[in-house]
Write a structure and sequence with these properties.
Distance between the termini: 82 Å
Shape: elongated
Strand order of the largest sheet: 7-6-8-9-10-11-12
CATH class of the largest domain: Alpha Beta
Order of helices and strands: HEHEHEHEEHEHEHEHHEHEHEHHE
Number of helices: 13
C-alpha cells in the first residue's frame, strides 16, 4: 500500500471510529421517583436528604440516572391531596411517602404506581396493607414502631421526672395511629396509678388551649406521640412545654434537636436507608406486594442537657448511660 493511501485510510478511520464507539456505548436510562411528605420545613427537608443519600449509596444519582420530584404537604390535607395528584400525573416509576397522611393521599390517588412508605405507625390498622408479611396491592414500606413503645415512653418520663402523676398525651385523634398510641399509654398509666389526658393536635389554637389548661394543675408531664401534625407544630409544642415547665418525652429526635427534653424512637437514617433499598429493588423489577412491611430494628434515646437544666431536671445516670446522643 502506498504511503498516501495509508494516510487516507488512517484518517478515515480516525473520523469514523469515535462515532462507532459512541453508538456502542449503552444509553443511561433515567428513572423517576416522586417523594411526598406530610409535613414541611427543616424536618421534611432533612428526611428527604437522608433518603436521597441512601439512594446515592445504591448508585441512584439525581441528574445522572435519577429524576426526583418532591412535594411537601405542610400538614394541609387539601394541599397534600393536590400534590399527590400532581406526582401521580407525572407517572413516576416509584412513589415514596413519608408518614401516614402522605401514604393515604397517594393510595387514594393510585393503585398502580408502586409506593414505598416510611414512618407509618400502623399500616394494617390504617388500611394501607393487608398484612405486614404480605402487603398486597401496590404499597409496602417501613413502620415507625410497635404500639408497645408507648409504655416505654411512660417509663422514661417517670424515670426522669418521678413526681409526675398526670400525663398529657399529645396525639392526633383523627387516625388509627393516634388512637392506638393513646390507648397503650393509657393502659400502662393505669397500672401505675397515673392519670392520662389526651391533648389533641388538630390545629394550633386547640393545642395551645388544651395544653395550657392541662398545665394549670401540678405534677404534670407530656408524651408527644408520632403524627404529621405534631411535626408541623413542633416548635409550638416545645415552646409551650418550656413555658409551662413540663417535662416531655417525644417520639422523634427532631424535637430534641429543636430544644425538646428527651426522645426515644427509631433511628431515622436507618429507616430511610431501608426505604431507599426498597426503592432500589422496585426499580430493578421487584413488586411491592412481594416485599414485606418491616419494623425498625435500631432505636435511639436522645437527651437535651440544656433543656434539662432549664427545667430543673437532672438526668439519672441510668438514662445518660443509655443515651445514644446528647444535645447541649
Amino acid at each position: 500500500m502506498r504511503r498516501r493511501q495509508f494516510i487516507a485510510l488512517i484518517g478515515g478511520a480516525a473520523v469514523t471510529w469515535p462515532i462507532a464507539v459512541e453508538a456502542q456505548r449503552p444509553k443511561v436510562v433515567m428513572r423517576q421517583v416522586g417523594i411526598l411528605t406530610g409535613a414541611s420545613g427543616p424536618v421534611s427537608d432533612a428526611r428527604v436528604r437522608m433518603l436521597v443519600q441512601g439512594l446515592g449509596e445504591l448508585g441512584w444519582l439525581e441528574g445522572r440516572n435519577l429524576r426526583l420530584e418532591i412535594r411537601h404537604g405542610g400538614g394541609d390535607g387539601a394541599a397534600l391531596r393536590k400534590h399527590a395528584e400532581e406526582l401521580v400525573g407525572l407517572k413516576p416509576d416509584v412513589l415514596v411517602a413519608n408518614g401516614g397522611t402522605a401514604t393515604q393521599s397517594l393510595l387514594q390517588t393510585t393503585q398502580a404506581i408502586p409506593i414505598v412508605f416510611s414512618f407509618v405507625p400502623d399500616p394494617v390498622g390504617s388500611g394501607f396493607v393487608n398484612s405486614l408479611s404480605r402487603p398486597g396491592g401496590n404499597v409496602t414500606g417501613f413502620t415507625q414502631f410497635e404500639y408497645t413503645i408507648g409504655g416505654k415512653w411512660l417509663e422514661l418520663l417517670r424515670e426522669i421526672a418521678p413526681s409526675v402523676k398526670r400525663v398529657g398525651v399529645i396525639r392526633d385523634p383523627t387516625g388509627a395511629a393516634g388512637v392506638g398510641q393513646f390507648a397503650v399509654i393509657q393502659a400502662a398509666a393505669a397500672a401505675q396509678s397515673v392519670e392520662t389526658q389526651p391533648i389533641n393536635v388538630r390545629d394550633p389554637a386547640e393545642l395551645e388551649r388544651e395544653l395550657n389548661a392541662f398545665a394549670s394543675v401540678a405534677s404534670g408531664g407530656l408524651i408527644v406521640t408520632s403524627s404529621t401534625n405534631a411535626l408541623v407544630y413542633r416548635d409550638l409544642i416545645i415552646n409551650l412545654a418550656a413555658k409551662n415547665k413540663l417535662p416531655a418525652v417525644y417520639a422523634q429526635r427532631e424535637f430534641v434537636n429543636a430544644g425538646g427534653l428527651v426522645s426515644y424512637g427509631a433511628d431515622l437514617f436507618a429507616v430511610l436507608r431501608n426505604a431507599a433499598g426498597y426503592v432500589d429493588r422496585i426499580l430493578k423489577g421487584e413488586k411491592p406486594a412481594n416485599l414485606p412491611v418491616q419494623a425498625p430494628t435500631k432505636f435511639e434515646l436522645v437527651v437535651n442537657t440544656k433543656t434539662a437544666v432549664a427545667l430543673g431536671i437532672e438526668f439519672p445516670p441510668t438514662v445518660l448511660a443509655r443515651a445514644q446522643d446528647a444535645t447541649q
